[in-house]
Amino acid sequence: MGDDSEWLKLPVDQKCEHKLWKARLNGYEESLKIFQKIRDEKSPEWSKFLGLIKKFVTDSNAVVQLKGLEAALVYVENAHVAGKTTGEVVSGVVSKVFNQPKAKAKELGIEICLMYIEIEKGETVQEELLKGLDNKNPKIIVACIETLRKALSEFGSKIILLKPIIKVLPKLFESRDKGVRDEAKLIAVEIYRWIRDVLRPPLQNINSVQLKELEEEWVKLPTGAPKPTRFLRSQQELQAKLEQQQSAGGDAEGGGDDGDEVPQIDAYELLEAVEILSKLPKDFYDKIVVGKDTNVMLVALAAKCLTGLAVGLRKKFGQYAGHVVPTILEKFKEKKPQVVQALQEAIDAIFLTTTLQNISEDVLAVMDNKNPTIKQQTSLFIARSFRHCTASTLPKSLLKPFCAGLLKHINDSAPEVRDAAFEALGTALKVVGEKAVNPFLVDVDKLKLDRIKECSEKVELVHGKKAGLAAEKKEFKPVPGRTASSGAAGDKDTKDISVPKPGPLKKAPATKAGGPPKKGKPSAPGGAGSAGNKSKKGLETKEIVEPELSIEVCEEKASAVLPATCIQLLDSSNWKERLACMEEFQKAVELMDRTEMPCQALVRMLAKKPGWKETNFQVMQMKLHIVALIAQKGNFSKTSAQIVLDGLVDKIGDVKCGNNAKEAMTAIAEACMLPWTAEQVMSMAFSQKNPKNQSETLNWLSNAIKEFGFSGLNVKAFISNVKTALAATNPAVRTSAITLLGVMYLYVGPSLRMFFEDEKPALLSQIDAEFEKMQGQSPPAPTRGISKHSTSGTDEGEDGDEPDDGGNDVVDLLPRTEISDKITSELVSKIGDKNWKIRKEGLDEVAGIINEAKFIQPNIGELPTALKGRLNDSNKILVQQTLTILQQLAVAMGPNIKQHVKNLGIPIITVLGDSKNNVRAAALATVNAWAEQTGMKEWLEGEDLSEELKRENPFLRQELLGWLAEKLPTLRSTPTDLILCVPHLYSCLEDRNGDVRKKAQDALPFFMMHLGYEKMAKATGKLKPTSKDQVLAMLEKAKANMPAKPAAPAKAISKPMGGSAPAKFQPASGPVEDSVSSTVELKPDPKKAKALGVSSKAKSAQGKKVPSKTSLKEDEDKSGPIFIVVPNGKEQRIKDEKGLKVLKWNFTTPRDEYIEQLKTQMSSCVAKWLQDEMFHSDFQHHNKALAVMVDHLESEKEGVIGCLDLILKWLTLRFFDTNTSVLMKALEYLKLLFTLLSEEEYHLTENEASSFIPYLILKVGEPKDVIRKDVRAILNRMCLVYPASKMFPFIMEGTKSKNSKQRAECLEELGCLVESYGMNVCQPTPGKALKEIAIHIGDRDNTVRNAALNTIVTVYNVHGDQVFKLIGTLSEKDMSMLEERIKRSAKRPSAAPIKQIEEKPQRTQSISSNANMLRKGPAEDMSSKLNQARSMSGHPEAAQMVRREFQLDLDEIENDNGTVQCEMPELVQHKLDDIFEPVLIPEPKIRAVSPHFDDMHSNTASTINFIISQVASGDINTSIQALTQIDEVLRQEDKAEAMSGHIDQFLIATFMQLRLIYNTHMADEKLEKDEIIKLYSCIIGNMISLFQIESLAREASTGVLKDLMHGLITLMLDSRIEDLEEGQQVIRSVNLLVVKVLEKSDQTNILSALLVLLQDSLLATASSPKFSELVMKCLWRMVRLLPDTINSINLDRILLDIHIFMKVFPKEKLKQCKSEFPIRTLKTLLHTLCKLKGPKILDHLTMIDNKNESELEAHLCRMMKHSMDQSGSKSDKETEKGASRIDEKSSKAKVNDFLAEIFKKIGSKENTKEGLAELYEYKKKYSDADIEPFLKNSSQFFQSYVERGLRVIEMEREGKGRIPSSTGISSQVEVTCVPAPTSTVSSIGNTNGEEVGPSVYLERLKILRQRCGLDNTKQEDRPPLTSLLSKPAVPTVASSTDMLHSKLSQLRESREQHQHSDLDSNQSHSSGTMTTSSSSTANIDDLKKRLERIKSSRK
Questions:
Q1: Which stretches of 614-672 are DSSP H helices?
Q2: Which of 493, 866, 1477, 1879 is deepest in the core (most CB within 10 A)?
Q3: Region 212-234: what's the mean pLDDT?
Q4: What percent of the chain is modeled with pLDDT above 90?
C-alpha cells in the first residue's frame, strides 16, 4: 500500500509514465477529465501532454490502453497542437492497437485516425495506414483497409487520395487471408462509388471470379453522386450547408455542386508511368525518322507511334512538339488517305500536349508552302485547333498572323485549299466572335464574307464548349478549398496576435505622430482615430484579468449575494418557479455595488443546468437581460465572457430572444473591448451550423462596429470569416456578410475590395453595389466603448494633434504579404531575357505574384532593378505592361513605396518622354498612382526631377510640367530642391515646341507660389539678356495670377485642389489634411486617384487641365449663376444684326468667324468657366456644359430667356458636330428648354426662330430613330412658343432637302400641323402650300411619297373635297395614288376620333388662354396659347386635335376678304348635303380605317381614342369590333386604368350609337334584327363592365350621364324591341345597367343629370309620360341611396339644380301636370335632404344668385320649421329669421306692379327706348331685383332684345360710345333653323326617312365639337338680366347637343343681323339655352369683334 500512496501524490503527467499499470490508469483517467475541462483549444495545458500521447495508445496493459485511447481521442479532438503528434500516434495505433483482440480498442483506434484526418492531417494518416498494409499480421492489414474505407466514405475522395490505394488494390486481392480479400472487396466497392468506371482499368488484371463479384456489387450501388458526410475543421460551414440542403430536401444546387466535384480523377492519373526507352531496340533511332522515310506505310506507322507517345506523355510531350510539328505538316504532301489520316491523328494528339502559341510559328511557316495539299491540311489543322480554343486562349496577337495566312488561302486557285481556309476562318469567327475577327476581314468581299459566316454557323465547338465548362469548373473547384484552408491558417495566425497586448500598443500612437501623415481615409475628427487612441490608452488602465473559478467557489460567492430561494430554484422543473427565480436574480443584480459583484460566479450560476438550453423563452429573455446587466454594472472579465458567449451566440438567431442576446453581447463588448469580443463571437458563430445565428451575428457586428468604431479590430480574421459567410448557401448569411463589408468599407476604404476580387462575379457585383452605397459617407463617431476605459480628459489634448492616425491604423491593419522569396533570380533573369516573349512571361509572373498577394511588404528583392530595365524596353507593349505592374505595386505596397521613388519612380518619369501617346498616358497614370501613396516630398527632393526636366524632349517636358502644375498647388510646403528645376523651367518657356511653352507658362505661378517671386527673379540672372526680359515679363504676369498656398485645413476645404481637380472630385479632400503643421501636402481624394489611374488619354488629360492664367477666385465662381442677365442685351444684339454690324446667323456649315462672333457675344452674359467648356475642342466638355445648363435651367429662368438667342445659336453649332452623345444631350436640353419657355409663356422672336429652326430641321433627317423622334418632339413643343403658321414655311423649306428621310419627316410634320391647327397654318396660302406638298407624291423615295399622301389625306379629313381644288392639276399616276389613299383612309370629318377633356381642365384652360390674349394681343398667338394651355392641363394628346372648326376659319376669312359671304354658309350646307344620304356612304369607308391610323398613332391614348371613335360608327360590325376591344380592356383590372380620361368620350360615342340604332338601324328594313340585338348586347355588356369599376364610373360628367340615361330610358320604352325574340332580355339587361349607373356614378353628377332630364322631359310636349315616370323612378332610387351617399354629394350643386327646376316649374305649373308624381318626387327629395342634413341645409344655397326670391329657400325653411315644430326644439332665432324672410317676400308685391309697367312700355313700339332706360335705372337702383318672371314667358327674340338694349344703354352711359349691336350675343343665343331639343325628341320618334337627317347631322357635329374640346361648357337656364350687368353667369349643366345649337346660332345670328332681316319671334323658343363660362364669353367676344371687322370691311 505504501508505494500506492506514493504515486498518488505525483502530478498527472508523471503518473502517465509510471511503471505501475494502476498509476498509469489513474493518470489517464485524470488526463481525460482535464482534457474535457479545457475550453480553449490554444490553452498551454495541451502542450504538456504532447510527448505522452503516443504512450497513451501504445500502453502494454490492455485495460490501461483502452483508457489511454479514450483520453487520446479527446486530446486529438480538442487540442490546438494535436496535429504535431500525428505520425507517431497513428503508427502506434497501426502497430499496437489494430492487433488487439478487443473490438473496442480497434474502434477507438479507427476513431483517432479519423479525428486526425478531420484536423487536416489526412496525408500523414493515409501514409501510415498504407505502410500498415505491408505488415505481416493480416489483422492489422484488415484494420488499416477498414480505416481507409471509413475515411473515404466519410470524407470523400477529395480528402483521401485514391491513387496510392488503387495502386495496392491488386496486391490485396491476391492476399492469402480471406479477411484481407473481403475487406479489399469492400474498399473497391467504396472507391467505385466515388469514381465509377475510372476504377475498371487498374483492376482488369485481378482474378476473374473476384472481378465478377465486384461487378455484381457495383451494379447494386445507387447511381447518384456520393457526398462526404464529415468535414475538415476548415470546412465546418460546408457541413452546415449540407445539412441545410438535406433539410430542404437536397437542394438541387448543392447536388449539382458536389456532383461536379466527383469526376475529378482522370483514369490517366491512376495509371503508372511505364519506362519505355529501355525497351526500345538499340538501333531504333537509326531505323526511324518520319521526315526522311520514303515508304508511305512506314510514315503512317511512325505517325501512329507519335500519336501513342503524345497520348502517353500528355503535357510532357509538349517540349518535343516544336521538332515534330513542321515535319508532320510537311508530310501532308502524301496523297494516301490512310497516311493523311494517321498524320492528322498524330498532329491532333500533339496539339493537345502543347498550346497553339507554342507551335504557331511552325504552322505559319508551312502555310506559304506551294503544295496545295499541305496548305489544305494545314488550314484544316488550324480549324481543328481553333475548336479547342476559347476567346481567351486565342488572343488578337495570335489571331492576326493566322488570319493573314488564311486570307491568302481563300484566294488560292485550288478549291480544296479555299474550302479549308473558309472553315478555319469560320471556326475562328465562332470562337472569338465577329468583333475580334472583323478588323482582319476588312478587305474581304461580301461573297467570301458570307461564306465565312456560313461556315461559322456550321461549326460545333464540341471541345471548346465542354473544355470551357470544365475549365470553369476547375477554376471554381479550388476556391472553396483554398478559402477554407486559408481561413484556417488565417485563424491560426490571428489567434496568436489578436488578443491586444497592452505593451506595444502604448508605443504605437507616439511613433506615428512624428513623421508626415500617411495616406489614409479621412476620418471624422472625433472618429475612428481618436477613439482608437483612447481605447488603446484605456486598455492599459483597466484590463480586467480574472482566474477561472471552480463551480464550488462560484456557488459560494453567488450564495453570498443572492437570496437562497433563488439559487435553489435555478434548476426547478417548473418554468414559473424558474421565472420567479430570474426576477429575484435580476433585482439582486440591480441593487449590487460594482465592487462587490462577483461577475464570474453570477454568470456561472446562469449557465448552470438548464443553462443556455432553457426551453421557456420568458425565462431565457430574463436570463440574457441579466447577463447584459452584469456586464454593464460589474467588473466583467474575459473569463466571465467566455462562459456566456457560447450561449449568447446560440440564441442570437432566436426570434424571441435574439434581441436580448444582442444586447448582452454589446454590453460584453463594452466591458471586454469589441476586438476581442468580435473575434470570439465570430469564431463561435462559424464553428456551428445554424445559418440564422451566423447571419444575425454578422448583423450584430455591423452595428457594433458603427457604435464602437473600428480601432483594434483584426481585419484579416474578419475577412476569412466573411469569405466563409459569402460562400454560405443561405442567402441571409450572404446578405449579412455583404452588409458587414459595407460597414468595414466605411473604415478601411477601397483597399478592402482587393480581398474579394476572386469571388464569383454575381457576388462581387453585390459587394460593389454595397460599397457604392457607402461611398462619400464618413464613418459615424463611435458612441460606445469610450466611457468605461478613457481616463478623464487628459488624453484629449494629445489626441487632437493626430487625427489622421485613425485612417492609418486601418491601412496598417491590412495584412501584408512578404513576396521577396518569390522574386527569385530566375524570375529576374527572365525579365531581362533577350527574347521578348520570355521577358513578357516574367512580367506576367510578377503581375500574378502581386495580384495574389494583394498587400505586400516593402522588401521586394531584386525586382526594382529588373523592372527599371523594362521601362526602356524596345517593345512598347512590355513598357506598358511594366507601367501597369508598377501601378499595382504602388497600391499593393501602400505608403511604403516611398523607399522606391528614387530607384523606380524617377525612371517612370523618363517614360513620360515616349513618343507614343498611349505609353505617356500610362506613365502619367502610374506616376499619379505612386504620388498618391507617397506624397510629393520624395519626388521633389534631390536633383532627379530637375535632371529629367533638363532633357530636351518636348513630350517629357510638357507632360512633366503639366504634372507639376497639377500637384504643386495642392502642397503646403516643398523641399528647397525645387529651385533646381527653375533654370530648366525657364528654358522650357523658350522651347521650340509651342505645347512645352504653354505648359511652362501654366506651371509658372505654382512654382512661384512655393519659391516666391524674389527667388524666381534672382534665378533669371544666368539667362541671356533678351530671354531675361521675356521671362521677367512672364514672371510679372504670373505674380498677378499666383494662387495662395493652401494654408489651414479650413481653406483647404474651400479650394481643395487649387482648382486643378475636376469639380466632381473636390468634396472629399477636406478632412484629410487636418493634421500636424509640418504636413507636407494635401492628399488628393481617393476617387480622383482612381480616375487618374485609368490609363486613357481622356482621363489623364482631364486630370492635367490646370486653369492657366486664372486666379483661384474664378474657380469659386462655379457656384454663381451661369447666365448673367444683361438689360436689353438681346434687343441690342437683334439691332446689331439688323444693322449688319454683325454677321447674320446663316450658313451651310459654321465657319470660324461665326463661332468667334458667338463667343464674343456670349462673353458678357455667360459665366467664363462655362464658356470655356462650351467652346472647348473636346466633345466631352460640351457634354459637361450641357449637363450644367440642364441643372441650372429651372433656377435661372430669367438668365436663360435673356441669353436664349445665344443658347439656341450655340446649339445649332452642336448640330454640326459628329458626336452622337452631344447631339442627344443637346436635344434632351432643348426638350426641357421649350417646356420651360411654354410654361413661362415666352414667344420666340423672329431672330431666334430664323437662326435656329432651319438647323433643327436638318436633324429631322438623321438616320437614328431616337434622334428623329426627339427632334419631332421639339418641333411639337415649339408650336407652343412660336406660331404654327410661321413654323410652316421653315418646315416647308425642309422638304426641299436632298436627304429623303428629312423630306419624309418634314412632310409628316406638316400633316401634323394641319391636323392640329387647321388649314390656316398653310403659308403663304393653302393653295400654294398644298401644291408644293403634292409635288412630293411623285418622289422617287417610297417613304416620302407616303408622307406626302398622308399629309394631303390629313388636309382632306379637315377640309373635304376642297383639297382637290387647292392642289390643282396632278399627273394621272399621282392623282390615282392620292384617290386610292383617301379612299383607304376614309377618315371623314364625321368619324374623327372624339377628343374630350375632362370638365375641370377645360375651365381652367379657357381662363388662362383668355388671360394670355389680354396680355399678349396678337391674334395669331391664340392657337399656340390654347395649345399650350391645353397641354398644361395634362392632356397632351388633346393638344394636337383641338381648336379647329370655328375659331381658325375666321382667320381664313380675314385673310381672304372676297369669299366670306358665300363661303361660310356653303361650308355648313355642304356638310349637310353630305349627311343626308342615310347610311350608304360610311360603309365602304369604315372598312380599312386602321392601317393608316396605326402609322400615325402609336401611343395608347390615341389608340383608345381611335377605337372609341369607331364605337359610334354607322357600320354595325365596326362598332361591335370596337366594343369588344374596349370590353377586353375593361375586364382586366390592370389594363382598365388605361380608359381613365376617356370615359366621357366613350359614353358619348355609346349613346350616339344608341341613337343611331334607334333612329336608323331599327328603321332599316334590310338589316337583320339579330345584328341589332348583338350590337345592343355588346353596348350593354360594355357599360355594365364599365360601371362595375367605380373609379372609372365616377369620371362620367353630368351632361354625358344625362344623355346616357336619356338613351337608356328611350331604349327601355322602345316598343319595337319588345316585339323581337330576345328583346325582353335586352330590356332586362338595360334595367340592370340603369341600376348600376345610378349606384356607381359620381352621385352628384347623376342626381344633377336626372333632375335636368326630368325638367327636359316635362317641358318637351312630345315626350311620353312614361319617360318622365321612369326618370322619376330613378330619382326615387337615388333618394333611397341618399342616407349612404349624402356625404359624398355636392349639395350646393344639387340645390342649384332643384332651384332651376322650381323656377322653370313653379308650384302652380307643377300642380297643372297630369300626374302628381313630379311634385311628389321633388318634395320627397327635399324632405330626405332636410332630414339628413338638418338646419345645415340652408348653408348650401351658395350657388343660387337671389336666394331671397328663390322658391326653394322658402320651401326649405317651411320644411325645417315643420320638422322643428314636431321635435319641439324650435329656437326663437329661427322663427325671427323665417319671419323676416316672409315679410321680405310680401313687400316684393309692390315692386312687381312697377316692373310690369316698365315691361309694357318696352313692348309698345313708341315707348321702347324709354322703357329700356327706366328698366336700366331701376336695375342700377335695386341691383338684386328679379326681372326674370317678366321675361320668362316672352319670346326668345324679345329677351335678347331687352338684354341688348340694356347693354347699349350701359355702354352709352359709361361714356364708351356706341358699339355694334352684335355684342349682345355672347350670353344669349338664338336657335333659329336648328330644331331645339324639344323637337329632337319628336323626330326621334319618327320612323320615316326624311326627318332623320338633321338629328344624325347634329350627332356628327357633336362629335366634331367634342373633338375640338368644346364639349364641356355648361348650360344654364336663362340667366337673370342682372347677371349681365353685375357678375358673370354661374355655369351649370349642359347637354352635349345644346353646345352645337349655341355655336351655330351665333354664326347664324351674326349673318342675319348683317342682312337686317327681322326674325319671327315664334320661330325661336329654346328651353335649354346656355352660356359659356365667363372666360369663353370673352373668347366669343373676341370672335365677334373680328366678325364685325370683316362685316364693316364688306360694307
A1: 617-633, 638-651, 658-672
A2: 866
A3: 82
A4: 4
